[in-house]
Structure formats: C-alpha cells, structure tokens
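Students often ask why we bother encoding 3D structure as a string. The short answer is that it lets us treat folding as translation between two languages. Here is a chain of 197 residues written in the first language.
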Amino acid sequence: MKGKRVFVLNGHPAESSLTGSLAQAYADAARDAGHDVRLTHLHDLQFDPDYGFGGYVNQKPLEPGLEQVLQDIEWAEHVVVATPVWWGGFPAKLKGLIDRAFLPGRTFDTRNTTAIGLPAPLLKGRTGRVLILSDTPNWVFRLFYRNALMVQLRGQVLGFVGIKPLKITQFSGASHPKDGMVQKWVRKVTAIGAVAG
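And here it is in the second language, the structure alphabet:
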C-alpha cells in the first residue's frame, strides 16, 4: 500500500502540552507505517496573528512560517490539526494562523463560486482529521453547545477550503485526566495515525 502525504499541525501555543504529545504520537505512528509526514508545532512559528487590514486588498506579506504551513497543506493528501478548546474555540495564535494564512487565491476563490454561492474551495482532494482536547465532556458539547466548534471546523474552516471528509476525535477531561486515560488516548491516536485516518 502506498503511503499518504500527511501534514500534522500541533495547534497548542505552548512548547510542551498534552495536545502536542498527541500530535507527535500521530505523526510518529504515521511515519512508522510508511507515510510521508511533515509535523509543525505552532509554538515554533513566529508571525503576527492580527490580520490587521480587515480586507483582502492590502494583505500583509506572509511570514516564512505561515508560507511553509500553506505549502505543507498544499503538498499534503491528509491534513491533521490537534488543538485544545479554550473558551469554546481555538487558541488565539491558532486562530491567527487561520486568519492570516487561509487567504483567497491560496485556499478559496472569491471569483468563482459553488452551487450555493460560496467561494470555491481550492484545497479539494485532501482529507482531514482534527484532534480536539477539552475539559468539557462530549455530551455537553453536543447537548448544550450543539457541537459548535465541530460545525465551525466542518463548515467554515477546513471544510470551507475543501478539506473533506473531515473526521473529528474529541478527548475530554484533558486538564485532569483520570489514571491511565492519557495512555489510552495515545494508543487511540497511534492507531489512527498508523492508517493516516
């Protein structure tokens, strides 16, 4: 079986984190299984997360790290993002990466539209996986928050630019995991990574 080209983004801004450990476990398992893997840690990237101009006419030039992330996504057949949930959404630096790097002409096309009038996605042909770490239990996400972050990821971020199908795996109780839970999560992520799923 031919290996996939896999890009993994650890979306936690700290140098050491459980999110980063799971991203690393996924990347290691995928690489060991024969997939071609590129791994980027958000904490290693230096860029201004503020889009600043508020429009697409006067875009800030991309810093080298952001340009590399875009090139890695364009190279990949499968895109993996690991992120904690803070205040119901992404960490600010990860949101800043999306604001700055997911630009028209690279990730979507405002001059051409889909059948329902949305900008045409430019990253079609790639599948995705998101690893979400939160304190909020999964059932609370579903019942009280209507899976808002998952809907955003599928409809307004990764799915919007063409990364489909997008599978999401959530790990809850991340700040104070029960005994043995982290090892269980690592085993689960390792199994997913081995098939680049």
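Translate back mentally: DSSP finds six helices and seven strands in the chain. Keep this in mind for the problem set.
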